[in-house]
Amino acid sequence: MQHDAAGLPLSLDDAEAARLWDGVVAAFLAHSAATPALLAEALARAPGFALGHAAQGLFLSLLGRRELDPAIDAALAAARSAEAQGGADARERGFVDALGEMRAGRMFAAAARLEGIVATHPGDALAAKLAQAIRFMLGDAAGMRALADRMVQPHAGFGGDHPHRGYVLGQRAFALEETGDYAEAEGEGRAGLELAPDDAWGLHAVAHVMDMTGRAEAGVRWLAGKSRHWAHCNNFGGHVWWHLALFHLDRGNLGAALALYDRRVRPQPTDDYRDIANAASLLLRLELEGGDVGERWEELGALCAARTEDGCVVFADLHYLLALNRTGREDEAAALTARIARDAQGLDHDQHEVCAVAGLPAARGLNAFRAGRWGEAHRALSLALPQLARIGGSHAQRDLFERMTIDAALRAGDVRAAEAALARRCARRGAEDGYAARRRAAIAERAGALRAAAFAAG
To answer: Pick from 236, 250, 323, 344: which is nearest to 281 by CA?
Structure first.
């Protein structure tokens, strides 16, 4: 029997296979583009390694793509076959069980299985990272925080000599930020990077802190010139560039944000939902600030037209709908909205409940926004906002929908509703940012115009 870099036992007899597996884990923690190739090499060396097959299925599940279901099924079958032949210990069987829960649409149960591994097998950074990734998709900030806090307890096995402690601190930094502990989150993220300079997740957690606390200038300084920290990344690197674009946008530098869109955020027309979300979100934010994005929506709309029936992640569905609406694809937008409505009637998948409480009202709000029915858009989006965290993603990502809610009220001429929505947004954040300052000015201007009109009429 071999052991991994953290000292955990592996159902492997081959030292080279164990070495390859260590590379897979380190690459996944660092969001490295090399992860799939390393995993393929490890499984070629050890085809009966149940944990490797389970990890492959879980990695694919995180991509939220319906066409990957056959590959996920194949990974699950291979993992169970290897397990049946004695190729898994209790810890490794937990990963197989977690994959089974994910495949069945029971994402909360999958995360709980992985957290059980962390509790019973101290030092398992892969299980912890996967659990956080799933809870992130579920928008479960409290769950992320609870796990992160347990991971830094002495009994958790992630002490100073753990080879992946830097990544663990990066995970905790993000959980702290999403639950509003901004100062501790920033300190944790910076400390993690000292141990793991390639931890793009921890780096981006600090960027989140700066976004939420209205420190755009500091955010630019934090990210600009540091791309070496995420040059190794898969498409997560594009998301880090997205954060830099947001800081430029907050400062009112629309040109810099648009240039980053072309060069870094959307250099290639991929149809990964996370890439589409980055692109659609940035384009719409630019337009809300009066920017002209030209024909950039078109390639997004064409890709999203093929994804109306996915139904894997509500967060993805809503960003697909944004692109469909902005490119006038009314039939596809209607089909996507209808599918969300159908899913909202079901209880056989965790995301179906999300459709009911947040996805469907948000979709209706986006459709009304597209049609210029501002009052209706404000009402529908306001209905979705209290449960919007359930769609997944971060505060920074979901902020787009809050901005649309505020702007819909302003365009409807409902100054009080706009002011109330802006106040709620500011209360949920750590400070007022550039967007809030600009909208406060717009609200004051609109209120003054209404008072002047009333005075003239009276």
So the answer is: 323
SS3 call for 10: strand
Any idea what DSSP says for residue 32? B
Say which residue the tokens 């947004």 belong to: 425
Opening angle at CA 238, ends 235 and 213, nearest 5: 125
Domain boundaries, the chain: 1-139, 295-458
Predicted local confidence at residue 449, as pLDDT: 73
Torsion of the alpha carbons at 249, 253, 257 and 262, rounded to the nearest 10: 160
Q: Which fold has domain 295-458?
A: 1.25.40
- What does the pLDDT look like over 394-432, one tens digit per residue? 999 999 999 999 999 999 999 999 999 999 999 989 899
20-56 pLDDT per residue, tens? 999 999 999 999 999 999 999 999 999 999 999 999 9
Say how many C-beta atoms besides its own lie within 10 A of residue 441's C-beta: 10
Tell me the sheet residues that pair with 121. Answer: none
At 3, is the secondary structure helix, strand, or coil? strand
Buried b (16+ CB within 10 A) or exposed e, 57-69: bbbbbbbbbeebe
Strand partners, 9: 3
- Topology given in CATH for the domain delimited by 1-139: 1.25.40
Strand-pairing partners, residue 32, are 233
Distances (CA, A) of 204 to 31, 95, 219, 327, 433: 12, 27, 10, 31, 18
Residues ≥6 apart with Cβ < 8 Å to 342: none
H-helix or E-strand containing 2?
Answer: strand 2-3
pLDDT-derived band at 456, boundaries 50, 70, 90: confident
Can you read off the two tokens belonging to residue 137?
A: 């998709």
Residues in the chain: 458
pTM value is 0.96
Estimate the crossing angle of helix 200-212 against helix 236-250, to 10 degrees: 20
Q: Which amino acid type is present at position 448? A: G
- Residue 87 pLDDT exceeds 90: no
Is the torsion defined by CA of 246, 252, 253, 259 positive or negative? positive
* Measured distance CA(166)–CA(199) in Å, rounded: 7
- Around Cβ 454, how many Cβ atoms within 10 Å? 9
- Which among 163, 203, 198 is positioned nearest to 186, based on CA atoms? 203
